[in-house]
Amino acid sequence: MTATPRPSTPRLSTLADLETHVAHRVAMFKDMEMGSEEGLKRMAESFRTQLRNWLVTGQCRGLVMEESGKAVASVLLLMKESVPTPVTPLSVRGYLFNVYTVPSHRRKGLAARLTDAALELARDLGLEIVELHASLEAEGLYQRMGFVPTSEMRLVMGAGIKTPKQWKHRRT
After folding, report:
1. What is the pTM (predicted TM-score) of this model?
2. Which CATH number fits domain 11-167: 3.40.718.10, 3.40.50.150, 3.40.630.30, 3.30.1130.10?
């Protein structure tokens, strides 16, 4: 009897993982039904260039989990400039994004394992605050991990840009 392969331990991304992170970002937005095909294509092109620069400079670090040599989950941690506050004088915060698991591997704890690994990386980098934007589906996971909802709000001002339905009615 052969054992079912298990996803690997999260490993640090390299430039060779750039297309994985881009594909996972596109798939994430498709799963949330956000954006047209044309909009997703434009986003992917811009994101590819931006992420490549961030990975080269170290401003962004990624983690990937694989099974049988194929990426099944990934996350990115961006070191984002911020203003100091009474909570922390540091002007850099971690921003977790692109937390994605392929559909066949969901509900197996991979997002939690990746987030834990990213938070450990953030601690190793000396970050004191880590932020993220959670999908409605993932809010419970992040709250169980210690994340708390904040008072953040957003105003969409670009001509012809509609506020995504996922941004509406987030507070009860």
Report:
1. 0.88
2. 3.40.630.30
